[in-house]
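thread from #wetlab-drylab

HS: before we spend reagent money on co-crystallization trials with phosphoribosyl ATP, can we at least see a predicted complex? here's what I'd submit
DV: go for it
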Amino acid sequence: MSLLTLAIQKSGRLSTSSYSLLQKSGLGPEEPNGRLKVPCTQFPLDLFLIRDDDIPGSISSGTCTCGIVGSNVLQEYQLEHLSSQIVVKRTLDFGACRLALAIPKDLEWNGPRQIKGLRIATSYPNILKNFLKQEGLEAEVVSMSGSVEAAPELGIADAICDIVSSGETLRMNGLKEVLTITDVKAVFICRRDQENSKEIERLCTRFDGVMGAENARYIMMNAKRSAVEAISQVAPGLSRPTLLPLAGSDEMVAIHMVARETMFWETLEKLRELGARDILVVPIEKMMA
Ligand code: PRT
Ligand code: ZN
């Protein structure tokens, strides 16, 4: 089997979650200890730990087979290089944020038409230009590599287009968010010519298993056989529930099911109202459909 190379961010907001996903997927990545190239002991895979901005380029050039990066960084790269060599295989469940437009907090906002003629500072000039073009808006795009949030205060721009998560950075800089340009998440990407390779598919199946298991719960309870349908409606499972006989009772059964969502106390209370007893909700470590 050929050796795959997977690029992840060396040090930053996506590093821990990316490394942890690979660990949970049973790839056995060695401890990085500052290394650029890290072998995996349980899968024919080498990790490349690099800056996030270098990840799409490393895949495009063929240095790496695949990688994990923010969809913002991928989109900016693809628009800048007019490249369609990279495909998104999975959207992952971390790194969520948004690329948004923000203006000084005292300025009134009357909708996107107000953008016309503004100077907008951003580290994502191609995404912003693409958005303006699609919306038929004209504005001046000022490219900055960092500290974008300081641009209005410094008089470099009238507005900014930057990554927002909690909104705290904007507030601290006297800005307010007025428009989402695009939602962002970490994505698992690979070269188009590897899209359907067996190894990439194996990785995807493992990632699906980890993400599915994190959101799913195994539920066990005892209830009357006649209540099974109503119970399945309250806690929809991944497949039909398993029914097991209970010793000494024809009427009662043990119900086992895998539920897709987090089980809230309200759901357990509803199950109890339907006559379910001895309800157990347990986490799932691994799952493969
Ligand atoms: O060194 P390297 O180039 O690898 O890293 P980097 O400094 O360019 O990127 P890094 O580590 O900051 O972010 C990596 C990726 O994480 C981004 O490309 C996004 O896909 C994702 N991400 C998720 C974020 C945030 N949340 C985030 N909050 N990236 C940046 N921020 C910054 C934002 O730029 C702003 O300064 O956090 C600030 C806003 O946060 P709030 O919570 O105050 O709104
Ligand atoms: Zn970066």
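DV: The chain has a mean pLDDT of 95.
HS: ok that's useful, forwarding to the group
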